[in-house]
Amino acid sequence: MKVVSATNVGNYRKNNEDSYYVNESKNLYVLADGMGGHLAGERASKMATEIIGEDFAGEREVISIDDAIEILSSSIRDANKKIYDSSQENEDYRGMGTTLSSGLILDDVLIYSNIGDSRIYRINEEMEQITQDDSFVNYLIEIGEITEEEAKNHPKKNVLTKAMGTTSDIEVIVNTLNIKDKDVFLFCSDGLTNMVPDEEIFKIVKENSPEEARDMLLDLALKNGGMDNITFILVFNE
To answer: Which residues have CB under 8 Å from 27's CB, separation 6+?
Structure first.
């Protein structure tokens, strides 16, 4: 695996509320996009990535897919509870929360989960979003009220129906995906996908080296507006 990553505050935000964690020896990738008042979003996203990272970085060996699913699921629930408890204990953090996209590669299988609208894509012969947004506009798409094209500019496109840390418990769904030759996985916050169209992301990743793709995607997101924090991880199955 070849892994590159980037994070940037963007052109307009004062703080970077995104966090990410990469453990290449464990093939673990975690990305979070925080929300809340002053510094609260930063705290929530950092807590999420650090707690999940620490759970996998310990001495416990992940020996099977079922084992990985159990650890990832329990770790996300644990992080959710700790973020929620922190928000209740400190008034400055009241109402904080974070999105999450997380994945672990084991035996040519991606074990992954997401909460909120941070996404995971598989890029190969095409670019495919493998996660499902927990968002109001995605709900409207599911019930047939709007189209995917209309969702891109919907006034409530940033409204989430689910986020880590906003309730004491949370439903966690962990999925698996068989990895194909030359697969590339993109973990990203919406600061990238809101600024760079899918077709541009696909073209850049397919036509450039990992390092060049990373730099070009970040530069283009900033050039196209950089309205939000920009964070992404690219994992190449070479």
So the answer is: 1, 104, 105, 106
